[in-house]
Amino acid sequence: SMWFLSQDWKAKQLLLVWGDTAGHVPWLFYDNSTGHYLNIDEHPYYWLDGRSALRPDQMPPEENNWVPDTAHIPDLVHTPYLITGSRYYRDLQDAVAHFSIMYTWPPQRCNYGLFDQGLLYTEGGAPMGFALREINWAGYV
Protein backbone atom coordinates (compact mmCIF):
# COMPACT_ATOMS: atom_id res chain seq x y z
CA SER A 1 0.00 0.00 0.00
CA MET A 2 3.03 2.29 0.25
CA TRP A 3 3.04 2.37 -3.54
CA PHE A 4 -0.42 3.95 -3.56
CA LEU A 5 0.92 6.85 -1.51
CA SER A 6 4.35 7.27 -3.07
CA GLN A 7 3.88 6.02 -6.66
CA ASP A 8 7.55 5.03 -6.40
CA TRP A 9 8.42 2.25 -8.86
CA LYS A 10 10.60 0.51 -6.21
CA ALA A 11 7.64 0.27 -3.87
CA LYS A 12 5.58 -1.19 -6.71
CA GLN A 13 8.27 -3.78 -7.48
CA LEU A 14 8.35 -4.79 -3.80
CA LEU A 15 4.57 -5.06 -3.77
CA LEU A 16 4.65 -7.38 -6.78
CA VAL A 17 7.41 -9.50 -5.22
CA TRP A 18 5.18 -10.00 -2.18
CA GLY A 19 2.38 -11.04 -4.52
CA ASP A 20 4.65 -13.51 -6.29
CA THR A 21 5.75 -14.89 -2.92
CA ALA A 22 2.15 -15.90 -2.21
CA GLY A 23 2.48 -18.54 -4.91
CA HIS A 24 5.05 -20.34 -2.77
CA VAL A 25 3.16 -20.39 0.52
CA PRO A 26 1.73 -23.87 1.24
CA TRP A 27 -1.91 -22.84 0.97
CA LEU A 28 -2.49 -23.83 -2.67
CA PHE A 29 -4.68 -26.92 -2.55
CA TYR A 30 -5.93 -27.53 -6.06
CA ASP A 31 -8.33 -30.38 -6.74
CA ASN A 32 -7.46 -31.81 -10.16
CA SER A 33 -10.65 -33.90 -10.27
CA THR A 34 -12.89 -30.80 -10.11
CA GLY A 35 -10.61 -28.23 -11.75
CA HIS A 36 -10.60 -25.73 -8.87
CA TYR A 37 -9.37 -25.27 -5.32
CA LEU A 38 -10.53 -27.53 -2.53
CA ASN A 39 -13.83 -26.40 -1.09
CA ILE A 40 -16.39 -27.50 1.44
CA ASP A 41 -18.93 -28.43 -1.21
CA GLU A 42 -16.87 -31.37 -2.48
CA HIS A 43 -14.89 -32.05 0.71
CA PRO A 44 -16.97 -31.03 3.74
CA TYR A 45 -14.89 -33.06 6.19
CA TYR A 46 -11.39 -32.11 5.00
CA TRP A 47 -9.34 -30.16 7.48
CA LEU A 48 -6.03 -28.57 6.42
CA ASP A 49 -4.31 -29.23 9.72
CA GLY A 50 -1.59 -31.65 10.73
CA ARG A 51 -3.91 -33.27 13.29
CA SER A 52 -6.48 -34.26 10.69
CA ALA A 53 -6.84 -37.83 9.49
CA LEU A 54 -8.76 -36.68 6.42
CA ARG A 55 -6.73 -34.18 4.43
CA PRO A 56 -5.38 -33.76 0.89
CA ASP A 57 -2.16 -35.33 -0.36
CA GLN A 58 -0.73 -31.85 -1.05
CA MET A 59 -0.25 -31.08 2.65
CA PRO A 60 3.35 -30.04 3.36
CA PRO A 61 5.29 -32.42 5.60
CA GLU A 62 5.32 -31.43 9.26
CA GLU A 63 9.11 -31.40 9.34
CA ASN A 64 9.36 -28.47 6.90
CA ASN A 65 8.38 -26.09 9.74
CA TRP A 66 6.29 -23.95 7.41
CA VAL A 67 2.70 -24.61 8.29
CA PRO A 68 0.37 -21.68 7.63
CA ASP A 69 -2.62 -21.04 9.84
CA THR A 70 -5.54 -18.65 9.78
CA ALA A 71 -4.26 -16.64 12.76
CA HIS A 72 -1.36 -15.28 10.69
CA ILE A 73 -2.47 -14.78 7.09
CA PRO A 74 -0.50 -11.96 5.48
CA ASP A 75 -2.17 -9.85 2.84
CA LEU A 76 0.07 -10.67 -0.10
CA VAL A 77 -2.12 -10.73 -3.20
CA HIS A 78 -5.09 -8.39 -2.88
CA THR A 79 -3.25 -5.16 -3.70
CA PRO A 80 -1.10 -6.70 -6.47
CA TYR A 81 -4.31 -7.92 -8.09
CA LEU A 82 -5.94 -4.49 -7.81
CA ILE A 83 -3.07 -2.70 -9.53
CA THR A 84 -2.35 -5.31 -12.24
CA GLY A 85 -5.61 -7.17 -12.86
CA SER A 86 -3.46 -10.29 -13.26
CA ARG A 87 -5.27 -13.63 -13.36
CA TYR A 88 -2.35 -15.11 -11.41
CA TYR A 89 -3.02 -12.86 -8.42
CA ARG A 90 -6.77 -13.40 -8.72
CA ASP A 91 -6.29 -17.16 -8.57
CA LEU A 92 -4.00 -16.79 -5.56
CA GLN A 93 -6.67 -14.70 -3.82
CA ASP A 94 -9.13 -17.55 -4.39
CA ALA A 95 -6.61 -20.06 -3.07
CA VAL A 96 -6.11 -18.09 0.14
CA ALA A 97 -9.87 -17.76 0.65
CA HIS A 98 -10.41 -21.48 0.14
CA PHE A 99 -7.51 -22.23 2.46
CA SER A 100 -9.07 -19.98 5.10
CA ILE A 101 -12.27 -22.00 5.02
CA MET A 102 -10.65 -25.43 4.73
CA TYR A 103 -8.18 -24.76 7.57
CA THR A 104 -10.99 -24.11 10.03
CA TRP A 105 -11.95 -27.24 11.97
CA PRO A 106 -15.03 -28.73 10.21
CA PRO A 107 -17.45 -28.51 13.16
CA GLN A 108 -16.54 -24.83 13.61
CA ARG A 109 -16.89 -23.91 9.96
CA CYS A 110 -20.17 -25.74 9.69
CA ASN A 111 -22.02 -24.54 12.78
CA TYR A 112 -21.41 -27.80 14.63
CA GLY A 113 -23.03 -30.24 12.26
CA LEU A 114 -24.98 -28.04 9.86
CA PHE A 115 -22.58 -28.69 6.98
CA ASP A 116 -24.87 -27.28 4.32
CA GLN A 117 -24.84 -23.78 5.83
CA GLY A 118 -21.13 -23.10 5.27
CA LEU A 119 -20.85 -20.88 8.32
CA LEU A 120 -17.45 -19.98 9.76
CA TYR A 121 -16.80 -19.71 13.47
CA THR A 122 -13.48 -19.85 15.28
CA GLU A 123 -12.56 -19.14 18.84
CA GLY A 124 -10.40 -16.06 18.96
CA GLY A 125 -10.63 -12.89 16.95
CA ALA A 126 -7.49 -13.12 14.82
CA PRO A 127 -8.16 -16.45 13.05
CA MET A 128 -11.72 -15.52 12.20
CA GLY A 129 -10.80 -11.94 11.27
CA PHE A 130 -8.02 -12.91 8.86
CA ALA A 131 -10.10 -15.72 7.34
CA LEU A 132 -13.12 -13.46 6.81
CA ARG A 133 -10.89 -10.75 5.28
CA GLU A 134 -9.58 -13.18 2.68
CA ILE A 135 -13.01 -14.62 1.93
CA ASN A 136 -14.46 -11.12 1.60
CA TRP A 137 -11.73 -9.93 -0.74
CA ALA A 138 -11.99 -13.01 -2.92
CA GLY A 139 -15.72 -12.48 -3.22
CA TYR A 140 -15.32 -8.76 -3.84
CA VAL A 141 -12.90 -9.01 -6.74
Quick description:
The protein is mostly helical and 141 residues long.
- Mean pLDDT figure: 80
Query: Which structural class is indicated by helix and strand composition?
Result: mainly alpha
**N-end to C-end Cα span:** 17 Å
Q: What helical percentage do the residues reach?
A: 40-55%
Spatial order of the strands in the main sheet? 1-2
SSE arrangement, N to C? HHEEHHHH
Distinct helical segment count? 6
The major sheet is characterized as: 2 strands, antiparallel
Number of strands: 2
Low-confidence stretches: none
What is the gyration radius calculated from CA atoms? 16 Å
Question: Per the principal axes of the C-alpha atoms, what is the gross shape?
Answer: globular
Beta content comes to under 5%
Keywords:
mainly alpha; 6 helices; 141 residues; two-stranded antiparallel ribbon
How would you describe this protein?
The protein is mainly α. 44% of the residues lie in helices and 3% in strands. It contains six helices and two strands, in the order ααββαααα. The protein has helices spanning 2-6, 9-21, 78-84, 87-103, 106-109, 125-140, and strands at residues 30-31, 36-37. Strands 1-2 form a two-stranded antiparallel ribbon. The longest helix is centred in the last third of the chain and has 17 residues, at 87-103. The mean pLDDT is 80.
Question: Could you give the topology of this structure?
Answer:
Blueprint: H1 2-6, H2 9-21, E1 30-31, E2 36-37, H3 78-84, H4 87-103, H5 106-109, H6 125-140
Antiparallel strand pairs: 1-2
Helix pairs in contact: 2-3, 3-4, 4-6
